[in-house]
Specification:
Layout (H helix, E strand, L loop, with lengths): L4 H4 L5 H8 L5 E3 L5 H5 L2 E3 L6 H13 L2 H5 L1 H10 L13 H4 L6 E3 L13 E3 L17 H6 L7 H5 L18 H8 L5 H8 L3 H13 L9 E3 L1 H4 L4 H14 L10 E3 L6 H6 L6 E2 L3 E2 L10 H8 L9 H13 L23 H9 L5 E5 L9 H8 L4 E6 L4 H8 L1 H4 L11 E6 L8 E4 L4 E5 L12 H16 L8 H5 L20 H9 L1 E2 L2 E5 L12 E2 L36 E2 L27 E4 L18 E4 L77 E2 L19 E6 L15 H6 L4 E5 H7 L6 E6 L2 E10 L4 E4 L2 E9 L20 E2 L11 E7 L1
Parallel strand pairs: 1-2, 5-6, 9-10, 10-11, 21-26, 22-24
Antiparallel strand pairs: 3-4, 7-8, 12-13, 13-17, 14-15, 14-16, 18-19, 20-27, 21-28, 23-24, 23-28, 25-26
Length: 860
Amino acid sequence: MGSNMAECHPVAFRWPMKAKLNGATLIHVDPRFTRTSAVADLHVPIRAGSDIAFLGGLINYVINSKRWNTDPFFKEFVVNYTNAATIINDDFKDTEDLDGVFSGLKAFKEPDFWPENGNLGVYDNASWQYKRGPKPPGPVTKDLIARRVGPPFDDLVRSLKPGPAEKDPTLQHPRCAFQILKRHFSRYTPEMVEQVCGSPKEKFIKVAELLLENSGRDRTSAFAYAVAWTQHTYGVQMIGCCALLQLLLGNIGRPGAGVMALRGHAAIQGSTDVPTLYHSIHGYMNAPSALRPHETLRDYMAAETSPTSYYGNLPKFLVSYLKSMYGAAATAENDFGYDWHPKILGDHSHIAMFAAMAEGKVKGMSCVGQNPATSLNGGATRRALRQLEWLVVKDNWLTETATYWYLAPEVKSGEVKTADIKTEVFFFPSTQIAEYDGSFTNTQRMLQWHSFAAKAPGDCRTDSWFYHNLAKRLKKAYAGSKLSRDQGWNNLTWDFDPDAGEEPLYPGEISARKVLREINGYQTADPKQHLKGFGELKDDGSTTCASWIYCGCFPAWDQNLTARREPDPPGVPGAHLKWGWAWPANRRVMYNRASADLKGNPWSERKRWVWWDATFVNPPDPKTGKPVPRGKWVGYDVPDFGATKAPDAPPKPDGIGLDALSGTQPFIMRADGKGWLFVPAGLVDGPLPAHYEPHESPIQNPLYKQQTSPVHKVWSQGKPWNTLASVGDPKFPYVISTYRLTEHYLAGAMSRWLPWLAELQPELFIEMGRDLAREKGIKNLDWVYVTSPRGRIRAKALVTDRIGVMQIAGERIHHVGMPWHWGWMGLSTGDVVNDRTSWVGDPNVSIHEGKAFVCNVERA
């Protein structure tokens, strides 16, 4: 669901095909019949944007099925490994009580200093919390902060421990998480799914039965999704709904199970781990923020540390990160340079920044490896670019972003004059992927080192060259400043030049291995003493580590584990642990303690993955020299658990981190060690998924009075460059999705210049059903106009049976689709499909809604 894997991730799709040869069942739920559908055992059509209704229907079907209620495996897994039994606060109100919203909803007021957050509303999640007993006695957090305790910061972390959550293992308490979700999803019947999604009832039931048949002790099922689940105003909740379903089926932490995000590029995963994101720093720690209680180092730790999960070690991760940033200048006395670190002011995501840019609030932009002139409401984006004083574009070819000032549609039409654009544009020619050394982090969280295949022509340079030399110039520019705001630059460590004897690929190029060593971390006193894993990190400044989740990938000066290429021997079950290196700690299946039962035995021999070996003789504790009791987690994978924590081990009363969890709490990054069916914290739009309509929809929400997510984002509200359609607007009656083709890549800047690919897919088209074409008098290959409230584009008609009309809430709704690879540069050119999209998005991650909006189609 949410992906067309065969065409958009064809290399990875060989593994589902191998699984099918071994007897697996492939199901594809998608608005179009694609090449993925063609090789699937079952294709189920679905209206774009209605996936939560479909998944919610599966949840309702599963928990009311005979198999789920009679097979003891499901209850054992759910009661012990999820928060199903946990009782929620008495004042929590569900969408069932409030007709489509949760308790805690209130108006959002934009802060004056950054009014581009876009929120329509905001939730206070206090009522979503667990019902708890008294907090354990001990020091008060605010007193410890005032006294500036630490390092070590263990007492501060310990002071954060809450009281014990109330539970009902029978799952009968009306306010336990299970009963709340059971009532929440009770209206998601097969009949309702058919009405909301347009998915035939009998096909929906077939999917539900196949999932039940292929889940349990001996069998597991997996979901694979891509941007057709993320690019919605509730995309995070779509993914969370799938995770909820998989937890109920026992399909998390086990081989052949889980929810896999299909990344569209070799290092997209890496760009969030070592982030190019505004809201996080390395290893998914939240960026220090002026809007949160992050005033001091200890305030940040108190706000962000989860004391009873592995995140109880956050002070060690953070201090080691600050040591990587500021080196010897970061000391305990100055809180390791925390005050030098930049703080965010609000939503600085892509659309929020362009909304500010459109208002003239942004002076300049470096655009590297991105082509925004063809992206996300392209007309508004190009308007924003015209307000800049300067723009740097670094890319392989002259992209639309580099040439918008003289070739954009509004310039060619005379609507905008080049002479009126004040922006100075600089273009830096870039290398291709195969022209430099480095590492990728792929869909599987696996780091794989690659060496260059050829040197780049002319003055093409790598992105690392660009940022490395820019940083050195900026450090030189700030060197004489005495301003407090500039001390972060003055104290920043920056030592990535190649060592003596290491020949750079290009003049001024970095040493890529040096960067990976810095990310891995080392002992501060001896940079050649690399850290073997994040268990060695300290919060006293004695360790340096840029990204704690990558710690262990380069455990010795000459041991780059990401460069390994040794598969497991044929016929030996395993996780290929010597092929590359996967974070965290080279674990290939996260939370794999859940692959064993409460006693540590595999759920079945067929699904054996990691298990408890009570006879294993452990060496003495390396720190104390004391003997360690027998027993260790072993298996085909690196256990994602305390290696010697026995299944019957109780939590330590004063423990923090893993010590606060028992031997039967496998989800070690969650504060209660459980998989969360009900989400009390971390999501801003609700503790449970609920079906909302896309911001632009042809119908009223059939499930609730609340039409759309009450807290989703709309930027540039009321501005003429972000006009939006009202519900059921007759001028725009059709649902449209954008998608990718195998032959082109993203906005086309990497593919439309290649004659072979341009010949395979030479021009823009719109895919439409035969019924719609007949109604509109459109024939195959006719030119058509596609309009949305943001304007009009032209494309060829591809009339097909692969997409068509659906019965939705008693109405006939036509669905159309368009690939978005074209622009005005390259060998193959065409109109910009994203000119039709809008600036609306998900409130958790600010991604746009490009997979479900509305349009009209007419003959050109």
